[in-house]
Amino acid sequence: MKKNKVLLSVLALVLVAAISVAGTVAYLTSKTEEVVNTFTVGEVKIDLKEKKVAEDGSVPSGTTADKYTETKQSYKVYPGGVYNKAPAVLVDASSEKCYVFVKVDNGMAALEGGDNTIADQMEVNHWVLKDSANGIWQYDGIANPGDVLPLFETFTVRTDWDGQGITDNSKITILAAAVQADNCTATVALAEAKALLLN
User: Which of 97, 130, 150, 155: disulfide with 181, CB 3.0–4.6 Å?
Assistant: First the structure.
């Protein structure tokens, strides 16, 4: 019995010694830098402008040929006249990649003549007519930040036009819309653009 007490005492002393040693051990440690994930919302940004012209459709002297600065211009038209009109969709340099659409209401279509109509020029400039009833065109491709997407450059009045038919609706009105390209199909983008352009 006495022997057992001695053994227990020795075990108790060993345990205490082990605990006190453990309390003084210095462990090797390491800590990483904090990883911060910042989330921002991307943005699709476009503008619609055209090159400056005079009322007779000529380019004023001193006008930089490649600058798109105007949003509204007026013309005096004559039979057989060819007029500079150069609208373009401008994709902002900070924009995300996008699908681009325009709605063109050509109130001058009945007066157009020649082989180079507005529609012909738009096709050459990579626009595809998606909805003829509403005049909705889609740029054939994905637009990148900083892209300039010309629509057309001129319109021509028929030589046999008699000067009649000009009304308050004799306008060429253009509206543009863009939809993100990432994680979006062209079909879905068209549906989204129609919702924007027709409302």
Answer: 97
CA separation (Å) from 61 to 41, 54, 74? 43, 10, 18
How far, in Å, CA of 95 to CA of 114, rounded?
A: 37
Spell 165-192 as b/e; 16+ CB within 10 A means b.
Answer: eeeeeeebebebbbbbbeeeeeeebbeb
Give how many domains the chain has, as a whole number.
Answer: 1
Domain residue limits at 99: 46-197
What's the CATH number where 149 sits?
Answer: 2.60.40
Q: What is the pLDDT of residues 109-166, one digit of tens each?
A: 888 988 899 999 999 999 999 999 999 999 999 999 999 999 999 999 999 988 887 8
- Identify the pLDDT of residue 66: 72
In a domain, 14, yes or no: no
| pLDDT at res. 16 | 52
**CA contacts within 13 A on the Cβ side of 98:** 28
pTM of the model: 0.79
Radius of gyration in angstroms for the set of CA atoms belonging to the chain, rounded to a whole number: 36
Q: In the chain, count of helices (H) and strands (E)?
A: 3, 9
Residue at 32: amino acid letter: T
